[in-house]
Amino acid sequence: MAPIYGVIIAYLAGSIPSAYIAGKLRGVDLRQHGSGNLGATNVVRVLGPRIGGVVFLADVLKGFLPVFLLPIYTETLQPGVWALVYGAAAILGHVKPIFLLGKGGGKGVATASGVFLALAPVPMLVSMTAWILVFSLSRYVSLASLVGATVLPIAILARYRDPRSPVFIASVIIAAFVFWTHRANIGRLRRGEEHRFVKKETAS
Questions:
Q1: Contact between 139 and 114 (Cβ < 8 Å)
Q2: Residue 41 exposed, middle or buried by CB count within 10 Å (0-12, 13-18, 19+)
Q3: Alpha-carbon distance 85 to 128, whole Å?
Q4: In Å, what is the CA distance from 56 to each residue of 15, 142, 195?
Q5: Are 90 and 67 within 8 A, CB to CB?
Q6: How far apart are CA 88 and CA 158, in angstroms?
Q7: Alpha-carbon span 123 to 170, nearest angstrom
Q8: How confident is the model at residue 135, as a pLDDT?
Q9: Spans of all domains in the chain
Q10: Once rounded to an integer, what is the mean pLDDT over residues 172-191?
Q11: Which residue, 34, 47, 58, 169, is the most exposed by fewest CB within 10 angstroms?
């Protein structure tokens, strides 16, 4: 398979709007409820943790499967490089899903987690542990995501000790991207206006 086809497949996989589909199956447009974001966090808020957990897993798999599987079938001498490209395409698809005309995607954290779970599983598990710890203490999903994104490149560098590694460089770029997609949350955190995650809201 030519690499360009892998990029298209990865982008289309990332574009599958898991949260939107879950909401529609319950008769709810999640863009009109809770935070309005099509991510697993808003699904938990509006539809509950069980459905939110399924959506989170689906979003992780959208990043994991293209990176894990597509390089096997790619006709190239640089499968590792193309794995990174496929991961970037999947994340882009999640944030700008073609099936929703490029609008209303999530912030990319779960899909990026899936990408790095395939690329660097041990550092990703360290990052996820940091996420869980910060969320447990603060109940801020956004803060946990920002800390997790910060910890990931540090953990990758500590494990592989190569600052020129494409995976490390990609993790720094993704961390910056996570901070960019959470810029409104950062503003609310600074002002003390960010909402803590307590319980789901009731959709009407």
A1: no
A2: buried
A3: 22
A4: 14, 15, 20
A5: yes
A6: 23
A7: 13
A8: 93
A9: 1-101, 120-196
A10: 93
A11: 169
Residues, the chain: 204
Please report how the helices 109-119 and 166-181 are oriented relative to each other, as an axis angle in degrees rounded to 10.
170
Cβ pair 95, 108 in contact under 8 A: yes
Q: How far, in Å, CA of 88 to CA of 109, rounded?
A: 12
Token pair of 204 as six digits: 């009407």
Instruction: Quote the pTM value.
Output: 0.86
Supply 110's token pair.
């779960």
Beta strands in 10-149 (DSSP E): none
Stretch 13-32: mean pLDDT:
93
CA-to-CA distance for 112 and 87, rounded, in angstroms?
Answer: 7
Mean pLDDT of the chain: 91
Structure tokens at 178: 């996570």
What is the SS3 assignment for 104?
coil
Q: What is the DSSP letter of 164?
A: T
Q: Tell me the pLDDT tens digit for each residue of 97-110.
A: 999 887 778 888 99
